[in-house]
Amino acid sequence: MAQNYILKEKIKMGISACNFGAMVRYNNIGWDRASLIGRQKFDYVWTPVCPEVNSGLGVPRDPMKLVNGNGDDFWAGNARMKNKKGRDVGDDVRKGSAASLEILKRVNIDAFVFMDGSPSCGVYRTTLKNNRLGKPPGVFGSLLLKEDLFLIPALDLESPWKWWDWSRRLHAFVWLKRKEIKTKKELYDIWHALKFICQEADVPCANAIGQRLAGAPKKIDGDFIAKWKSDVLQLIRRPSTLKRIQAVMVKHYAHYRKHFSRDGSGIQAPDASRSKQIFVEELGKMERKAAQEGYHFAGRPIVYKPGRS
Can you tell me the distance from the alpha carbon of 165 to that of 159, in angstroms, rounded to the nearest whole number? Predict the structure, then answer.
């Protein structure tokens, strides 16, 4: 693995505390979903926060819901947060959400694992009842969307293939975000490493990014670099689908097998129809074998390899 494509520092990850083992939900329950990713949990530095507990509302507490709008409307003063008894708890939640965000900024997190379905932390849903969306985003979710963060739904930590997709994109996102870029050649090298994962998310959008780079003058300024980098970061944040992942990984398998030993080193062609767990395990074998052989595995273009302290 080329040194240029290695992330040596741990990613700083925020997480809704109810998914990090803290029983802080309104009904005094919680889950340790971070442990579901196994040993990878220790590849990150975690900062759990709960905006509702930081609001001083305590555990247990009455459930809440947004009234007359979503989280964006709440911060604009056009929506309210009320508990089950009809009490307006907007001032409390406003202070708790602001305090939680301040904590995350203080430790300089790169990503946040959010509890979708919550009127506070929800990003794409603010209720879990009857699979309805509610009024997204939630109050805290609205603040998260305004920050330059990589956002991951907590429930996706329960799915091996979804976590595999999120984690590889997260590593690419943080690596690119931290990367200092000065020349067009550096952009070309970066695009060579990241274009496949971007095309997997959206081919037309990825092709447009590549064409814009190809058509740029030899000497590019900081504004071009910043805009190009921002567009790539936005695309990397978009999750793939199991169907797309399998189609692309089968191609990678055919390519890399040419470089493996004749027996394929015990690696089977990635096939999610057998078992999603086995599918992810085979992808992991491909990654490790490519790293051992010194090949760049486009399926996970950036790897985490801690530097020596």
Answer: 10
